[in-house]
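Problem 12. The chain below contains 407 residues. Write out its predicted structure in token notation.
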Amino acid sequence: MLHRTHPLFLACLMACGLGLSAAAQAQKISDDVVRIGVLSDMSGLYADTAGRGSLESAKMAVEDFGGSVLGKKIEVVWADHQNKADVGATHARTWFDRDGVDLIINLNNTAVAIAVNNLARERNKLVMNTGGASDILTNEHCAPTAIHYTYDTYALAKGAADGILAQGKKEWFILGVDYAFGKAMSANLTEFVQAGGGKIVGSTYHPLNASDFSSFLLQAQGSKAPVIALANATSDTVNTIKAANEFGIAQKQTIVPSIMFINDIHALGLKYGQGMVFTTGFYWDRNDDTRAWARRFFEKMKKMPSMVHAGDYSAVTQYLKAVKAAGTDDAPAVVKQLQGMKLSDMFAQNGKLREDGRMVHDMFLVQVKKPAESQYPWDYYKVLATIPGDQAFKPLSKSTCKYIKGG
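Solution.
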């Protein structure tokens, strides 16, 4: 015998079900808090391009998101990795195992990033690398829950090599920093120079945060290569270029930085930086959206944001959107959600996350202005071209990440 259920009873069941569903969703936030850890160089040579500015960028993203997600508070914590892999790994391990940190961002040192990627793989936790450069992070050191967000050595080296080779300068000497980033950048530069019909005639490597570049520059000068490519970053790059100008080397050989931040140009000055061409992931004065966000950042930090700072803000924003859409801060679920989203904001337009962890977005070929061309403070770049993301970054078909399906 069939029994009819009263409509009011059905309505009650539906309401209760919805309530239970909402409660179940809310319970999917671990520890009832979404915690984001900014692990960066807070006191060393990479602090200006990341550091406190990265922490502020993350806080700005959380504030703009409303301070909570799925009814749960969002917290931001930070630590200084001191450019030491063991120190960075210790902080990350403590955050993951004891402090309930759900996401680690920044990691502006390749050796640190490799160590934290390994932990993310072991703990099934999420890492969004917004500061490290080496493309090995989405190749041999990839992880299912590790995302490489802002730029990498492949995209930066490709832009540098293509631009200079087009000028007919075929012989290159590489002057790099002696750790994982410098070696990765050198490998990428070598690949593109040789592919373009050029030749690497020699190389030399200096310690991180070197105090004297004279011996390394003399080796580069002695090679008589028309191009001296720099596989270093921030203050190491700035000091190399200054020394090359002081020794008269920059007047006879073309100095090509493989990675430059607007903070570097500010420190170097347009006198020494003018005319340099390189690739960047962000320029504050590119359009109305970039200018509006950058001016807010400037009010807090008294400097314009680097591409790392912009990447930090974007990564946290897109992460929180993914947590909201997925209904959880569970790392694999958030990664899956991100892979299905268009990642668009002031940093990237229609960016996409690939299964090897590479976030693909447009990059920009820029040239440093002459002093007379700069009209106002921090007016440093001319944007020469937009490089579509699928041309800027290594094709997925060439990735050696072992987690690619069917790879």
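Discussion. Residues 161 and 193 are 6 Å apart (CA to CA). Students who got a different answer should revisit the alignment rule from Section 12.3.
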